[in-house]
């Protein structure tokens, strides 16, 4: 094996030598590449010799250093070997001596017992003075407790407990099963436990009044905390000794620190519960007062904790955060208790507003003096979300019931106003109105303001509920308006201000519409339409439309007799029916000026249309048949004059652009009557049909019948030709003749008319 290693080493050396020679040759070749370098051979040789000598010197120094290290190591190993042999020899001697002394140790048991007994007696002697003076110290400690000298009292108590505990510990060490001696010591020191309890009561009393004490006498609170800290150290010491010896004095561990925090928690709870000074029976605002007192007490107490009480407790107690949490938990408990009471709607809102907004605001837990010590965002919600949802649901249910009742009462009050003998009030622009919209939207506004105090989502929910109730209310409003009109028709003299209040009702609808838009802009962040929008819009439009119709019906009830005179013999011979119609319409529309735009404009247009339609109906009813050309001329000229009267009146009333066309229909028919040459009648009728394509064949027949000179053949020719070249109605303009019916003469009607004519002749 060694031979192989030697051969390998020799082989490696030879290879290294060859590599060195090859390297040297290569280097020399590099130096002597030119002929002029041969003169420097001797210089190169000396330089290389110096380098070789330097390398050899460094190599020798390195090898010498390694050899010195190896020599030192070998010397230390030799010394260690000698030391190991000495230790081995010593251990053998110790083992031999230990085996020889076992019997001797067993013979020293009596000495050991004597030592233990001596230790116990020494402890007894040391505590002998305290043992004999126990009654005196107990009395003195009792007096100190009563005088409020808590630190001195606790020092005396610690002396008594130390004497008792040392005696009991020594007795336990001597004979742990000897309970009689233990009981004897316990009986002798039994008053000590009573003193401890009495002192603890004093401590708890100070802690219960800590908010007052820290302002008046903070040293008292500091003394209490120091006593509790001492007891905590003794508890830890006794628990550690129990782990080692199994003995622990009676009453340990006291855990006064835990008890201190329990007392402080109870103090905070009592402080919060004691804020309720009134009840609902004595004060309707009891909850608002309770919450405000709670807010003030909690804020004041926490500021005191930060500025004063923190200094009375050790830093590791984390006093401020602990009290902050205690007050938060106490308030949470109190608020949960309040939610279990039968709260009214306004009380629910007050509570939720306080819980969701006021509590974390700068007015309370988010106060600048507190934010620097505690992150308000770490607080748990005062109320679980399900409790908040239940309260909101209860509020919505109560609010729905209340708002329904309020709206019903508001409508009943408004209905009573409709029967008054005095006109309704007018706004700043002179338009009639009642107080109903203001009352309704004041209710909505108040409830939405309250809902906005809770949160945005709930505000949206209440807004939707208000609009839903508004839709139901408007439907009842419409029913009452119709009933108001029906009652008026039974006696048109009552109520005296029917016209004025119907105008106010129409104007109220415009106010309702504007107020709804205002509420949505103010209280809704969404631009999307609400579910009830279309229904409200439709109901308001129906109330306005029906109200305007009722007003126009009132006008035309007064015009009925005068309209019946049109196109009769009396009218032809000289009637003032149209003059009366114009005066009556103008008089009514002086009142209708109190209707808000655009409704007054719409009423004017509708009145014009109805007047014209009634006039055309009088034509189509064939109340008169012209006997000759003079009558036709007089009748036509009268119709043209009356058409101009209508045109003048309604332009004065600011009717729309359709005035000329409507009044022109009367003039166009008058031109048919006025025509003197029957052969041109077809052309005149054709012109009429081209202007008013909604005119029907029965209308043409009625016109020809009133004219009185058209033969049967001519009527058939005109009707036939018009039928073949019928002009289609495009519907771009509002029809005039569409709803005008031409009465048909039945056999019964003919018989009746014949009988009436016969009776008239006989008479």
Describe this structure in words.
- Keywords: Acetylation, Cell projection, Cytoplasm, Exocytosis, Golgi apparatus, Protein transport, Transport.
- InterPro entries: EXOC3/Sec6 (IPR010326), EXOC3/Sec6_C (IPR042532).
- One of its GO terms (cellular component) is growth cone.
- GO terms for molecular function: SNARE binding.
- It is found in: Cell projection, Growth cone; Cytoplasm, Perinuclear region; Golgi apparatus; Midbody.
- By secondary structure, the protein is mainly α.
- It has helices spanning 2-31, 41-106, 109-126, 128-132, 134-147, 150-174, 179-188, 190-208, 210-216, 218-245, 256-273, 286-307, 319-339, 345-358, 368-371, 385-418, 436-454, 456-490, 498-523, 533-565, 569-574, 577-592, 599-620, 629-652, 659-674, 681-691, 697-707, 712-724, 747-762.
- The longest helix has 66 residues, at 41-106.
- The radius of gyration is 59 Å and the shape is elongated.
- Residues 746-763 have low confidence and may be disordered.
């Amino acid at each position: 094996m060694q031979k192989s290693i030697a051969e390998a080493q020799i082989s490696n050396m030879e290879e290294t030598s060859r590599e060195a020679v090859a390297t040297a040759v290569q280097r020399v070749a590099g130096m002597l590449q030119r002929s002029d370098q041969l003169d420097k051979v001797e210089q190169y040789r000396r330089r290389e010799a110096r380098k070789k000598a330097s390398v050899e010197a460094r190599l020798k120094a390195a090898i010498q250093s390694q050899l010195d290290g190896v020599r030192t190591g070998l010397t230390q190993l030799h010394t260690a070997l000698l030391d190991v042999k000495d230790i081995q020899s010593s251990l053998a001697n110790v083992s031999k001596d230990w085996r020889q002394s076992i019997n001797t140790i067993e013979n020293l048991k009596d000495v050991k017992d004597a030592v233990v007994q001596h230790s116990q007696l020494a402890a007894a002697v040391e505590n002998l003075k305290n043992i004999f003076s126990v009654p005196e110290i107990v009395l003195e400690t009792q007096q100190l407790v009563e005088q409020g000298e808590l630190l001195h009292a606790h020092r005396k108590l610690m002396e008594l407990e130390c004497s008792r505990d040392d005696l009991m510990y020594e007795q336990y060490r001597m004979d742990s099963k000897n309970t009689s001696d233990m009981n004897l010591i316990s009986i002798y020191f039994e008053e000590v436990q009573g003193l401890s309890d009495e002192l603890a009561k004093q401590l708890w009393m100070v802690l219960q009044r800590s908010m007052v004490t820290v302002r008046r006498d903070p040293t008292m609170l500091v003394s209490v905390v120091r006593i509790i800290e001492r007891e905590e150290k003794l508890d830890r010491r006794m628990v550690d000794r129990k782990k080692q010896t199994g003995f622990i004095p009676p009453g340990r561990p006291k855990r006064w620190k835990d008890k201190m925090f329990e007392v402080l928690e109870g103090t905070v709870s009592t402080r919060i519960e004691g804020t309720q000074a009134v009840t609902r029976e004595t004060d309707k605002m009891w909850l608002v007062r309770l919450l405000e007192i709670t807010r003030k007490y909690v804020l004041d107490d926490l500021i005191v904790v930060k500025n004063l009480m923190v200094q009375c407790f050790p830093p590791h107690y984390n006093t401020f955060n602990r009290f902050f949490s205690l007050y938060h938990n106490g308030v949470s408990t109190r608020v949960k208790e309040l939610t279990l009471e039968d709260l009214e709607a306004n009380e629910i809102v007050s509570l939720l507003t306080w819980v969701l907004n006021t509590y974390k605001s700068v007015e309370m837990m988010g106060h600048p003096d507190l934010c620097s010590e505690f992150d308000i965002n770490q607080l748990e919600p005062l109320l679980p979300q399900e409790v908040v949802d239940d309260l909101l649901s209860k509020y919505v249910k109560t609010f729905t019931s209340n708002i329904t009742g309020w709206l019903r009462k508001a409508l009943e009050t408004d209905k009573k106003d409709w029967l008054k003998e005095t006109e309704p009030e007018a706004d700043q622009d002179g338009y009639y109105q009642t107080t109903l919209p203001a009352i309704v939207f004041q209710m909505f506004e108040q409830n939405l303001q309250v809902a906005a105090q809770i949160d945005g989502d709930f505000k949206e929910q209440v807004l939707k509920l208000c609009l839903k109730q508004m839709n139901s209310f408007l439907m009842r409003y419409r029913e009452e308006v119709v009933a108001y009109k029906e009652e008026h028709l039974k006696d048109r003299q009552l109520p005296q201000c029917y016209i004025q209040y119907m105008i106010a009702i129409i104007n109220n609808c415009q106010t309702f519409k504007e107020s709804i838009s205002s509420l949505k802009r103010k209280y809704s962040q969404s631009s999307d339409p609400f579910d009830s929008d279309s229904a409200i819009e439709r109901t308001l439009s129906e109330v306005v439309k029906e109200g305007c119709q009722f007003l126009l019906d009132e006008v035309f009830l007064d015009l009925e007799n005068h309209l019946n005179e049109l196109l009769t013999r009396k009218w032809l011979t000289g009637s003032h029916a149209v003059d009366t119609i114009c005066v009556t319409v103008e008089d009514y529309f002086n009142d209708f000026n109190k209707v808000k735009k655009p409704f007054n404009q719409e009423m004017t247009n509708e009145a014009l249309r109805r007047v014209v339609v009634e006039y055309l109906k009088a034509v189509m009813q064939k109340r008169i048949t012209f006997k000759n050309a003079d009558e036709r001329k007089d009748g036509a000229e009268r119709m043209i004059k009356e058409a101009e009267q209508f045109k003048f009146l309604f332009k004065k009333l600011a009717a729309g652009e359709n005035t000329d066309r409507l009044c022109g229909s009367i003039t166009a028919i008058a031109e048919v009557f006025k025509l003197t040459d029957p052969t041109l009648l077809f052309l005149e009728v054709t012109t009429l049909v081209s202007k008013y394509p909604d005119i029907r064949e029965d209308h043409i027949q009625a016109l020809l019948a009133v004219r009185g000179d058209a033969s049967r053949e001519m009527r058939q020719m005109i009707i036939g030709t018009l039928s073949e070249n019928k002009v289609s109605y495009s519907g771009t303009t509002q029809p005039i003749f569409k709803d005008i019916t031409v009465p048909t003469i039945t056999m019964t009607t003919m018989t009746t008319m014949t009988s009436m004519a016969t009776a008239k002749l006989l008479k």
